[in-house]
Design brief:
single chain, alpha/beta, 7-stranded mixed sheet, 9 strands
């Protein structure tokens, strides 16, 4: 069954057909236009990659003009407390919400992969915030491993059961601002620890002075990571260095 998801696209810079595909998953209250703007910058180092940023399937509960992958209670007491540990625990408990949209994203990835004549190892995910949560949740539960997953300003859902639920290992690069008050940077360290404990190669990078957003140094780290995974220099069995 075709996926109902779709969104803005950026074609490969050279060749008649792409050799890689980068799927960008936006954050809560945004849409595909929010992340497709990264494509021209990434394409400078990835001229053979096509880019697509699907719009989430639901109107956003808190932002009528935006979209959401699943509901998030922004007035939750854990968030209102401002306690990073409580916030990370609250995000971690949202795995069942991601489960509901996961089949739709799996279908979209299959559809896009097949339409370009590619394999899962030619596909990478980039997520921002809620898009990172979904990228990690879905990307590590594919039938075959993806090339890699980049997560900006996000969190890991259901980390306590991750090791038992992984079906396909993929390298992961996490990037977070140290001034993020929406999803605290602690979420990145929590995710890195859980992913590493599950046996996945994971790296992390902290963008100094950055809030809930993507800084230029984060784009550089993501570009380097994607170049490495698509070239085969970095795989699920190779390590990733951390950066602060």
């Amino acid at each position: 069954m075709p996926s109902p998801l779709d969104g803005p696209r950026h074609p490969q810079a050279r060749g008649d057909r792409p050799k890689q595909l980068v799927v960008l998953l936006h954050g809560y209250g945004a849409d595909g236009q929010d992340l497709i703007g990264l494509a021209p910058y990434l394409a400078r180092s990835l001229p053979d990659a096509a880019f697509v940023a699907p719009n989430a399937p639901e109107p956003c509960d808190m932002s009528p003009m935006g979209r959401q992958w699943f509901a998030i209670d922004l007035d939750d007491p854990a968030r209102a407390s401002g306690d990073p540990k409580q916030m990370v625990e609250r995000y971690g408990a949202m795995g069942s919400r991601a489960d509901q949209v996961a089949p739709m994203l799996h279908a979209f990835l299959d559809q896009e992969r097949d339409s370009h004549g590619l394999q899962d190892r030619d596909v990478a995910l980039i997520g921002f915030s809620q898009g990172t949560m979904l990228s990690l949740h879905v990307g590590l539960r594919r039938a075959a491993p993806l090339a890699g997953i980049v997560g900006f300003s996000g969190a890991l859902l259901g980390g306590e059961t991750l090791a038992q639920e992984i079906t396909s290992a993929a390298p992961v690069q996490l990037i977070h601002g140290d001034h993020d008050d929406m999803v605290p940077a602690l979420a990145m360290f929590h995710a890195a620890g859980a992913l590493g404990h599950a046996g996945l190669p994971v790296g992390f990078h902290v963008s100094a002075g950055t809030g809930h957003g993507i800084a230029p140094d984060g784009i550089e780290v993501a570009t380097s990571f994607l170049t490495s995974v698509f070239s085969g220099r970095l795989t699920a069995t190779a390590g990733i260095s951390t950066a602060l």
